[in-house]
Amino acid sequence: MVLYLRGMSILNIEFKAATNKLAELETLLQQHNPEFIGEDHQIDTYFNVISGRLKLREGHIENALIHYEREDFAGAKSSHVLLYQHHPDKTLKDILIKTLGIKTVVEKHRRIYFINNVKFHFDTVEGLGTFVEVEAIDKDGKIGKEKLQAQCDAYAALFNIEAKDYCAASYSDMILKNV
Prior knowledge:
Layout: E1 6-18, H1 22-30, E2 35-47, E3 53-58, E4 64-70, E5 77-85, H2 90-100, E6 102-115, E7 118-125, E8 129-138, H3 145-158, H4 171-178
């Protein structure tokens, strides 16, 4: 039985960048007194859908069914996210597999931080390497797209992210491209 904890529609601006300086970037962020949420081993199972992406995230910290739509270009980009948080339950995954089929699976170790509404991921992704992700999140529509973009730009500058570092594709698309 899946227990409903929270369902929400979210606007965020986010970027993902490849890095070989993951520990250095994390140390740099720590100088800004972020809230450390923890380290999570996450398995994201992506399902076949007509539009957007649908993934079931299974972790020790985060467990959610997530549908999102965003353009695939390098740099900070807008995402429209539907998020359903739940307690881990094998039945939900079994239903999704049976009805939609698995597109791909992404396994990663993620260190998670927050500064106000901005979420930081320091990721080691199996088969892909290391990445930093920054998500400026507007859960209730009060922050606005412009401020979210400014927050992403500020953290990209802090991390000295260059144009060549940005990733256009999701981890799932990168995995599929490598197959």
